[in-house]
Amino acid sequence: MTSNLPASIHASLASSTVSVSEPSHWLHSPLFLITLTLLAYQLGQTFYRRTGKIFFLHPLITSSTAIASTLMALQVDYEHYFSATYLLHFLLGPATVALALPLHRYFHCVKTQATPIVATLVIGSLCAITSTLWLADSLGASQDVLLSLAPKSVTTPIALNIIDVIGGSPFLTAGVVVTTGVVGATVAPLIFQLIKVKSHRIQGFTLGLTAHGVGTAKAFEISGEAGAFASLALGLTGIFIALVLPHVIQWFV
Predict the structure, then answer these.
(1) d(Cα 209, Cα 153) in Å, to the nearest integer?
(2) What's the helix, strand, coil split of the chain in %, to 5?
């Protein structure tokens, strides 16, 4: 299974293997850290639903806060946690592919909207890449930071493989990707209300393009149609950015 992981993660797996012979060591083990992650997210999801799905109480926000606090208390550095929970990152790949199932149901709608879909994909993806790199470069970000920020607008498994090609820190990239998803999924519904966007197709495609996996999950809360178009955007954006980013990044580094 580990042979399918990006080299940047695969190379660090050895450091995540710890001895469990001493009581304190099992708190740093992959088994404990994966369990912690799943439990924190499940509790966050339950809390999110019971509070009426308030946007700033999204489970990714509450669970990430809980996990970060626990890691600090246990003195577990992020790189070790990231490597120890590699199995969860690996499973993001099959989960992304599975999003094709709801898309199949609405494929007849996709065919009639091919032109606006392609135009939105190209313009939106290029704006996401260039605006991020331009702003970071203007603020004096290092080359490593620029490379790590570049794939922020694609889902995690694709972003990590892009980093394997162009360079950068997979740990920083993973954190930025999640942050992008949470912010996008939180802010987008407010913008939809503000500019009166009511089409579920437009809402879904926008969420998938700008907030990838988290946005797609948010789109499925709106409707199956929104979720299908978000799945389409997530996949197409990942493919398009993976193809063009290695060329665009040369303008900035």
Answers:
(1) 7
(2) 80, 0, 20
Side-chain half-sphere CA neighbours of 20 within 13 A: 9
Chain centroid offset of residue 15 CA:
24
Cα 237 vs. chain centroid, distance in angstroms?
Answer: 12
Q: Is 20 helix (H, G, I), strand (E, B) or coil?
A: coil
- Average model confidence (pLDDT) across the chain: 84
Contacts of 99 (CB under 8 A, 6+ apart): 216, 231, 234, 235
Asked whether the beta carbons of 110 and 208 are under 8 A apart, the reply is no
Q: Which helix or strand (DSSP H or E) is residue 217 part of?
A: helix 200-222
What letter does residue 21 receive in the DSSP assignment?
Answer: S
The type of residue at 45 is: Q
Q: Using CA atoms, how far apart are residues 75 and 96, in angstroms rounded to an integer?
A: 32
Strands (E), the chain: none
Token pair, residue 57, equals: 């109480």
Compute CA distances 168 → 136, 145, 162, whole Å. Answer: 14, 7, 9
CA distance 247 to 133: 13
- Domain segments of the chain as ranges: 2-91, 99-251
pLDDT tens per residue across span 48-86: 889 887 777 878 888 888 998 999 998 888 888 888 888
**Distance (Å, rounded) from C-alpha 56 to C-alpha 46?**
14
Q: Both tokens of residue 222? A: 């709106």
